[in-house]
Amino acid sequence: MGGMPVVMEGALADLGAWKTDHCSLVKALEVVGTRSALLILREACYGTTRFSGFAGRIGITDRAAAQQLRRLTEAGLLAKRPYREDGGRTRDEYVLTEMGSDLFPVIVALMQWGDKHLQDGPAPLHYVDHETGAPLHVELRTETGDTLELEQVGVRKNPAWHAPNRTPQPNSPS
Amino acid sequence: MGGMPVVMEGALADLGAWKTDHCSLVKALEVVGTRSALLILREACYGTTRFSGFAGRIGITDRAAAQQLRRLTEAGLLAKRPYREDGGRTRDEYVLTEMGSDLFPVIVALMQWGDKHLQDGPAPLHYVDHETGAPLHVELRTETGDTLELEQVGVRKNPAWHAPNRTPQPNSPS
DNA sequence: GGTCTGGCTATACAAGGAGCAAGCCAAAGC
DNA sequence: GCTTTGGCTTGCTCCTTGTATAGCCAGACC
Q: Which of A140, B10, B122, B138 could form a disulfide with B109 if both were Cys (CB 3.0 to 4.6 A apart)?
């Protein structure tokens, strides 16, 4: 069992005394906090670029696909790029930006968790190093390469942090 | 910029020819695909265990908290544990199971992505090795410790995979 | 000019998440 | 036995996500 959580360092230890006002997780969930957004990004990582590919492979309606593609493009995770098939007009396809492909670890982490806890049998797909075939995993590591258990992790305030717009408030990070 | 996606190996290369029927990501999103579910789990990782702590710190209503705590408990990410404060009746608190704490990398990965792409200034919080203070990161790594770019990643069918209930269909993994 | 096609939009609707506010309930303590 | 307290439920409402179905629109080709 888990049980023991992370170590909240310093002033963070008193959970009643601070708020998670600027939490990056909250901001992230505002952008990719829906099922269809993450599935669109999975598809984009798989190499899907065209409207009908997204809608068809994910199994969502045109409307849902169009809406999410627009949202993700506006947010900067996808970029439109014109293309042209012979005998067709020029259209836009959707390719990952750096911001979008930086989400790949999130997708693999969720996939890995689902593989372990939600599949009846073995995992259907593997992520590997394409060159060597070595299996890939998402891991929490320090620069020196150590992986940690949850209870060995510490959370601390970033001393360089300051409130985004004026009035640097001292007491509400995250 | 990103641009190049992962390498779909073998039969997976033809995206039109297979479906993502058993994708672990889809299953994972059915359990933790909502904002409030992930925020509850963030709080559980931070050490919050009690009803009012979840509702109050996340800033959601009692109703939403109760609903998610029930869902996550039924799904096996949280477990109820009785406790008793002096002068109070016994009640249940919610602690992470192994299944729940295995989601921590997902939370950190999302947080890290938000830190990089959605914060106006520096990140408000840091995750570190509590012992040494060394910063923690989520990384895609092979067993030999190499980290990869997106275009070096390969996706392949698991040869050991079989459809969960009878009729092992040959053509629809993930 | 007419038609076809793929990408996208429009309308109408159902389901679920979540807010507000109030109420319920099982001890503990008076 | 009445009140208090914290945890949880209920009724009602709004908003978002997603479905189903249909329609629009800009070219390319005829």
A: B138
Q: Which helix (H) or strand (E) holds A168?
A: none
By CB atoms closer than 10 A (0-12, 13-18, 19+), residue B121 is middle
- Strand runs labelled E in A114-158: 125-129, 136-142, 153-157
Would you say B110 and A26 are in contact if contact means Cβ atoms under 8 Å apart? no
Pairing of strands A153-157, A7-8: parallel
Contacts of A140 (CB under 8 A, 6+ apart): A147, A148, A153, B104, B105, B108, B127, B136, B137, B138
pLDDT > 90: what percent of chain A?
A: 71
pLDDT digits (tens, 9 = 90+) for A95-136: 999 999 999 999 999 999 999 999 988 999 999 999 999 999
In the chain, the amino acid numbered A16 is G
- Return the residue matching tokens 């009690």: B50
Tokens of B10: 């073998």
Contact A158 B102 (CB under 8 A): no
Per the confidence metrics, is the pTM higher than 0.85? yes
Q: How far is the CA of B63 from the C1' of C1 (A)?
A: 62
Q: Are B80 and A66 in contact (CB under 8 A)?
A: no
Asked if B162 and A122 count as a contact pair (C-beta separation under 8 A), the reply is yes
Rounded CA-CA distance A59/B131 in Å is 47
CB contact under 8 A, A174 and B31: no
Contact flag B58-A27 (C-beta cutoff 8 Å): no
Residue B43 backbone dihedrals phi, psi, to 5 degrees: -60, -40
